[in-house]
Every structure is written in structure tokens, then in C-alpha cells.
Amino acid sequence: MARADLLKKLFVSHKTGDHEAFYRVAQEIIEDERKKNHGILADELKLILNGSAQPRRSVSTYSSNIGKVKDEDVRLFEIIYPEKYFSDLIAMPQMQQELERIVNEFQNWDVLVSNGVAPTKRILFYGAPGCGKTLAAQTLASEIGLPMIYVRFDAVISSYLGETASNLRKVFDFARQDSYVVFFDEFDAIARSRNDPFEHGEIKRVVNTFLQQLDSFKGKSLVIAATNFEQSLDYAIWRRFDCTLRFDMPTNDAKMRLFCLRLKSLDGANHIFAEFLNETDGFTYADVEQTANFVRKQCVLEGRKIYTKRDIEQAVQRQKENVALRKTQY
Length: 330
Known about the structure:
Residues 119-251 form the AAA+ ATPase domain. It is built from 14 helices and six strands. It has helices spanning 3-16, 19-35, 39-49, 93-107, 109-114, 133-144, 153-156, 163-175, 201-216, 235-239, 252-262, 271-274, 285-301, 309-327, and strands spanning 77-80, 122-127, 148-151, 181-184, 222-227, 243-247.
């Protein structure tokens, strides 16, 4: 049955007080979501229906509970409240399942701990730039309902001897005050191999400090690190993470789905973009986003609600040039 019909039946049964019909239709909606691979949503709806759900904690409810940032530490990190969800994420099925599993484990944290099982709480994202690592971290924060500590590496890394390690300790000290998703982007900046002959002694001190802080970091939080240069990471770093996820370049199917998702507010033939897929070799997810954004801007500026083949052709060509330029920089 179409989703619209299910919703109508749900409202009618509620209005008429037909509890059996309401429960039956609600079950149909849950199964409909499960068939769409919305497993977490289906589980949450089932818990709500059965009266045993723990409401998802809104990120906004943390604003009055988060620790107070010292003035001298403001520059080290930023507290942000992401609003990205699985519906915003185009990921391969296996990646989607892994992310949903992490959310499910966090939501059942107390159950796992009480049974002597540790939930996943240290996650390493690696892979090509522009392939969704930051978006995935934001999605986990939003789906779980945690604020994110976004670590500013330009401020954490210092030219003064010992100060980088001290800054890392300050980040973890703050994170211990409450539950957060602590996000270390560009992680290779502080976790480079200690055996690298071109690195000075300071990097060894920094890596040792990070490992010590991570090992001693307890509490109901997630620590997520992301890097585009996984080959540069210290060997000991890999062993400290419960889960490592590789973010690969998008397939043509993923490009198509992302393009359609980002242009859902406009009318136009989706198959038009498919005609240009051969022109998108080397495009990351971010490149597809840029392509779709260019089309949207053109339509907005010209007061149109329908995009054309010409719009897509121009957008793809512009981004191809950007991709070609980027390749010359490596």
C-alpha cells in the first residue's frame, strides 16, 4: 500500500478511536520502512509503538548541559549541533549498515555494558577526500542526538615544544564533562608514524599523548577520527580503534542517487544526468554536490523551477575542470 494511504488510515483510526486498526496500520508502516532499509527508524517506531522506547535525545537539549569552555580553550575546538541524518547520506549498503550498527549500539549502550560487552566508541574513517567522512560523522552525531566537538587542528598544533600535547589533553579534559561525538578531522596531522625519519621528536610526544588520552577516555561518548592519508598513520593508532571504515569513490549509481537527492526541490528529467556519467570520471561525492549546487543556483537566479540538459552540461563541464586542476596538485 502507498505510504500516503497508510498515513491516511493511521489518522482515521486515531480519530475514530479504533485502537486495533491504529496498531495494525502502524505495524504496516514499520514494515514499509524496514523494506526501504530504514532499519533504525523501523526499530525506533516499533519501540515507540510497544511503549518501551527511550526518546531520542534532541541535540538542542544538550545546550544547557555541556561543559563551560575556558576562554583560553575556545580556539582549540568548536561545539556544533549537526542536522544531518541518514536521509542526507548516500552510502554503499555495507557502509550504511555499519553506521546504523554504531547508532544502535550507542542507543543500547547500557544494555551492552550491563552484559559485559563494550559498545563501539572509537571509530576511524579513512579514504579519498570528498567522499563523505565528515558528513558521516555529523550524521552519527545527529542520529544519536549528541553535540559534536569539532577539533581545530590549526589551533591544536603548536610550534612551541610540548604545547600540542598539552592542547590535546585540554580537548579530552573538556570532553570528559559530558557525552559528545569528538571529531578529529585531518587526523594524520597529529597521528603520523613515529618511525618517519623526516619527523622530529615532537611528533612522538604528540602521538604518545593521544594514545594515552584515548586509552584513558571513558564515558558515554564517541571518538571519531578522519584522514585522507591513512598510510601516514602510526601503526599503534590503528589498534586503538574499535571500528575502521574506508570511504571509497562513488559508483555511477551513487553519483546518480546523490544528484537526484540534491535536486529533489526542482523539476527535471533525472535521466539527463545519466547521459553525462561518463564525463564524471574522478568525481568524488563532493564534486557531485558541487555539480548539483551549480544547477540549483542557475535555476534560482533565473527564476526557474525546471532544470535542463544545458544546465547539467555546464555544471559537469565546470566541475571537470576543477577535478583536472586538482589532479595537477598531487
